[in-house]
Prior knowledge:
Chain A is an all-beta fold. In chain A, 0% of the residues lie in helices and 47% in strands. In chain A, strands 2, 4, 5, 6, 9, 10 and 11 form a 7-stranded mixed beta sheet that branches. Chain A has a 4-stranded antiparallel beta sheet with strand order 1-3-8-7, with no helix packed on it. Chain A is globular, with a radius of gyration of 14 Å. Chain B has strands at 3-5, 10-14, 19-21, 24-26, 31-38, 44-50, 56-58, 64-68, 73-78, 87-95, 105-106, 110-115. In chain B, strand 8 (64-68) and strand 9 (73-78) form a beta hairpin. Classes of the chains: A mainly beta, B mainly beta.
Amino acid sequence: NAGVMQNPRHLVRRRGQEARLRCSPVKGHSHVYWYRQLPEEGLKFMVYLQKENIIDESGMPKERFSAEFPKEGPSILRIQQVVRGDSAAYFCASSPRGGGASDRVWQYFGPGTRLTVT
Amino acid sequence: AQSVAQPEDQVNVAEGNPLTVKCTYSVSGNPYLFWYVQYPNRGLQFLLKYITGDNLVKGSYGFEAEFNKSQTSFHLKKPSALVSDSALYFCAVRDRDGGSQGNLIFGKGTKLSVKP
């Protein structure tokens, strides 16, 4: 069973270019989460998506960042006009459902994509 | 290889009692250590971290964690549990000596259930 897959694992972009990060969830999982790990810090939540819907984007920067999880294919985190401050590791996680108060709904994490902006 | 172990799938506590969620780690160098909480239908939220300094770290919602280098542990604790603390808790480690290239490694998570 394949876990969460992210590609590319490493991505280098020049300032002003676009970065597209892909996340393929565990087969059968319909919920995807994106996190950003800044240097020397822990994870910060960015966005939570269900197939074709954004459930919670409270952690997404207002400009240049967008995310989608189409009916078919991987989830995409898109960063337009990248700046040096966007350099970080971006983690994706998936779960089979959102979960209720008494459910154990684990998030399965991918290996991350390390974005370097030069 | 780096790894994080959360030996308990589930921890059950009565409201008002102290709680402990266990975490042990293995890294080649000195660690950064983190605890995160996941409430239903939400993403992970940061609780606390150990970088350096005092071994007892205080975080959000009354939680604290104790770094024990000799036992390579970073157990999460709270003196008096609340029903609203019921959630999934994830421990994570990052190899500080790996520099900015080090990624977070997560434990598999522990479900905390606090009963009234």
